[in-house]
Amino acid sequence: MAKTAAILYKKDGYNTNSQRLLGRQSASEGFLKALVRHSKAECLYCYTDTKAEYTEFCEQIRPLIQGSQNVRWIPTDNPLALAEPGVLYKPDPIITQLVWQRRYTDPRTYSICGVTHTLASKEVMQSIGDLLIAPVQPWDAIICTSQVVKTLIERIFETWGDYLAQRIGSKPEPKLSLPVIPLGVDCDAFPQGQIAKDIRNRFRQQLGINSNDIVVLFVGRLIFHAKAHPVPMYLALERAAKATNTKVHLIQAGWFEDQQQELAFKNATSLFCPSVNSIFLDGRQAAIRQGIWSVGDIFISLADNIQETFGLTPIEAMAAGLPVIVSDWNGYQETVRHEVDGFRIPTLFPPPECGLDFAANYYDDSLNYSTYIGHVSLMSAVDVEACTQALITLITNPELRQKMGENGRQWTRQMYDWSVVIRAYEALWQELAELRSNSETTTPLTPGTPPYPLCDDPCRVFAHYPTQILNQNQVLSLGSMAAPEKLEGIRTVWMTNFGANKRSSTEVINEVVDAIATAGSLSVGEIIRRYANSDVTVSNYLYRTLVYLIKFDVLRLN
After folding, report:
1. Is residue 21 pLDDT above 60, yes or no?
2. 253 phi and psi, to 5 degrees?
């Protein structure tokens, strides 16, 4: 049977219908659809806080379910049920809290699997650094969507480990897996053949673009400081249009972060590429997001931002059969084959120490995240002349455009189609299951020690506060509130009945009170033996219930 994972589900993480459409949402929605469609597992699992969220999950995947797949809910207050799927999948790399949470139960019960998106924020970097001291196991994993991402995580482990060695005299080693599995696309979802031609003609007619004109397409957020600064692209397009004496249209399909960004983008096109017809479309609209690929002749994305890690849109463009021009930056270095699927344009960055002041100001909150990455983006340069030459080459050579587009289409189907990527996920989950069976537990929990020392059992942490601790040798008798009507009064008042579901049941309490009434008094040890049946959890509930009853004078210490 194929291995699967329980999906930690929050609608925002898998939803592309919001006004702030982010790359991680698009990637996660694509993953969820692909898992439903391509998984060989007999059951799908959803791990949520509430039944309402589980219902949302079911509604999202219901149109995609094929055959006899079952869907099962695992509520977050029952993590031991994760033993059935064996893996908990979280659609980001921040898994430290989940790792510590698992230590309150049994670390071998299930694996925890995250996936990388943006790594540039200090919160994400801290979370990754914390994995060096968190109880991660060899059967846990953070999926790296590209080799450059894995290199960055390994660098964080290395530099943070060096500091810890200097501070405490020992350098911890990361214990989890860092497999490289790319994001995926549904290659069959991109129009082909006559359907693509019809979409192309319809869009071009609506936009006033002649059949022989060249359309250069950019798809993504229209935000200079967090994606790709548009001006190098504008400069290269202007020079290429003039050099080739060709009517060039630039379609930018995305969405603006705010009105200031929109005004800046539109003014910049007039200033830096006046010979190019610049068209802005709302890429949040499903019809545009799905159909715009058929309109273009060339795709371009000169990403220059440190929060970029993989880059999904070039993969989508190649799946649609477009030649691509991308910056030689982050994951683009691995997904686009230079002079095969398109062109990778050289990039430049200052040497180390040149941005330390930005880091310091970001750390002390003098700069917020957006301003920080904006400053850094202005320190990364894309070779405008090389981009110009790549554009000229593709604009003037339709045969090369077709050849590169077909190369990219085949490459994407071979490497990035979701059917391929899901197989890699399932192979990883199978490997993690084998590691759970065969590997030694890292930092095993010994009895009497806290699972997480910074959030331990309050009965242990604050044991020095009270005069005494309830023990089995102490003897209990009835107090003034033990009469049934008085005990019922306690149960009807909100603040005296608070937390009833975290104590022994009403039935057990009544039995204990009746037993003490019959015997006159009973030791704590005898009560535990009678009603806990050697079950540690039941025993713990009973201990705190006895103190609760003493609190309201239902019982008394002799």
Report:
1. no
2. -105, 110
Q: Cα separation of 231 and 131, whole Å?
A: 39
DSSP state of 499: T
Report pTM.
0.91
Strand bridging mode 475-478 / 522-523 = antiparallel
Q: What are phi and psi of 556, to 5 degrees?
A: -135, 145
CB distance 316 to 16 below 8 Å:
no
The closest alpha carbon to 421, from 62, 22, 37, belongs to: 37
Q: Is residue 221 pLDDT above 70, yes or no?
A: yes
Say if CB 235 and CB 384 are below 8 A apart: yes
Cα separation, 285 vs 21, in Å, equals 10
Q: What is the pLDDT of residues 517-545, one digit of tens each?
A: 999 999 999 999 999 988 899 999 999 99
Same fold, 6-183+423-438 and 187-415: yes
Every domain of the chain and the residues it spans = 6-183+423-438, 187-415, 466-557
Distances 330 to 118, 152, 538 between C-alpha atoms, Å: 11, 10, 53
**CATH for 6-183+423-438, among 2.60.420, 3.40.50, 1.10.10, 2.60.40?**
3.40.50
Question: Rounded to the nearest 10 degrees, what angle do helices 398-415 and 384-395 cross at?
Answer: 110
Q: What is the distance between the alpha carbons of residues 159 and 129, in angstroms, rounded to a whole number? A: 9
Contacts of 507 (CB under 8 A, 6+ apart): none
Helices assigned H by DSSP within 245-336: 259-272, 286-291, 313-319, 332-335
Q: Residue 28's pLDDT is what?
A: 87
Residues paired with 269 in a beta bridge: none
Task: Give rounded-to-5 percent helix, strand, coil for the chain.
Answer: 50, 15, 35
Q: Which one-letter amino acid corresponds to residue 335?
A: T
In sequence order, what are the beta bridge partners of 557? 476
Spatial distance between the Cα atoms of 221 and 287, rounded to a whole number of angstroms: 17
Rounded Cα distance between 546 and 501, Å, is 15
Cα torsion 524, 526, 527, 532: sign: positive
Q: Name the CATH superfamily for 187-415.
A: Glycogen Phosphorylase B; (3.40.50.2000)
Residues 6+ apart with CB under 8 A from 343: 324, 325, 326, 386, 390, 393, 394
**What per-residue confidence (pLDDT) applies to 139?**
98
3-state secondary structure of 348: strand
